[in-house]
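DM between two lab members

TW: hey, do you still have the Carbon starvation protein A entry open?
JB: yeah, one sec
JB: this one, 484 aa:
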Amino acid sequence: MITFLASIALLIIGYFTYGKYVEKVFGVKTARATPAYTHSDGVDYLPMSTPKNSLIQLLNIAGTGPIFGPIMGALYGPVAFIWIVIGCIFAGAVHDYLTGMISIRNRGAHLPELASKFLGKVMKHVVNAFAVLLLLLVGTVFVSTPADLLYVLSDGSVALWIIIAAIFLYYVLATLLPVDKIIGRLYPYFGALLIISALGVGIGLIVTGAKIPEISLSNFHPDNLPIFPLIFFTITCGALSGFHATQTPIISRTTQKEQQGRKIFYGMMIAEGIIAMIWAAAAMSMFDGYNGLSDMLANGGPGAVVSEVSTTLLGAIGGTLAILGVVVLPITSGDTAFRSARMIIAEYINMAQKKFSSRLWIALPLFAISVILTQIDFNILWRYFSWANQATAVIALFVGAMYLYIAKKNYWISLIPGTFMLVMVCTYILNAQIGFNLPMNISWIVSAVASTVLVVLFFRAAKKARANNLPLEIDISDYNKNIA
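TW: and the structure you got?
JB:
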């Protein structure tokens, strides 16, 4: 219990200390107008309040990641706590904050556009393909996951295909309508349900005196299972997730002032880390050890763990509410996944989105492809998603490092976690069966060499960009003069 409580305390302290430092490094401009005003279109660009933006951001980035990932990551033992705390404070929250703030400085641009500007035009095409693939996988996975949970919750009284069709219909509406019509109105309620359910489980663990394992040399992780690099692809949301880089521009287009960024971007990542801690602790403590957890996962998957934890700690009614809170997570990330995909493609082909027909022509093919992807085995989809997710995180962290390098600021806050995850991403794809299936020792060597070469190339490009005075932000001086 001490490790669990200390970890949550560290996450909160991290927001007020390191989060404040990252904000200072970036350099907030209080008088600069945000895209919500300079590019207002009534659809994607429009100002919303900080509480509303924060809850939408939390729900956008959460998905089932901070629940299902930590539940599966609990099999690694208390080392999962270390990755959640360190990863969240020094990697994930930095990733989210820099992505969101750089997007604000560049008319709410998505990651492919930012990668094109700061890492080279070729990267625009690479990242665009990565981002759209990632979002399609997320949207598809987050149709089947909540549908399965709702099917179990209804005891099979509602046909699974009806539930899937209803979720798809909601996704279509949330993707096409202005951001304040569905997302802006429903998310505050969904957010309250999510927070209440997570707090309920966390308080339940404390009140019942759950035997949450403490970190020790002998109990670092069970059965000497190999941690690296698998844990970084098991626990993503709640520590570091490239999916977040596809979501933050949605809110960068609705943020009223730059100084709200730390609460919205850095703060909500910390909140997600706390949710991840709660579910990792529950999974470690409630199934008579790792063998019991492994059996539960083998028989019913993470959804069965969620159901068992919720009903055991909170009773029938409270447990049902907690499960509904978990159901909300993938739905509120699936809808914004499709919305982000629409916005990224529109930005890529330079198609304005004010007209409904323009949104429709982009969205329909996305949903058609997603329907086809639902026929593929979930486990295969999730493996590719995990790798694409962390590869996207690496790209976003290098964009942040490039921005700070050109600005002559402390770029190490982004480059260090970016380089670390670059090594993990390369090692994973070289060793994994879905990749090159090389022996682990060879994978480490090739990964180290490749990562070193890429970092050297990064510094060469960064020095050239600084020497050429690459503009860091879109010039809105005329607008600022008009509102002054």
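TW: got it. The chain is about 75% helix and 0% strand. Residues 45 and 438 are 46 Å apart (CA to CA).
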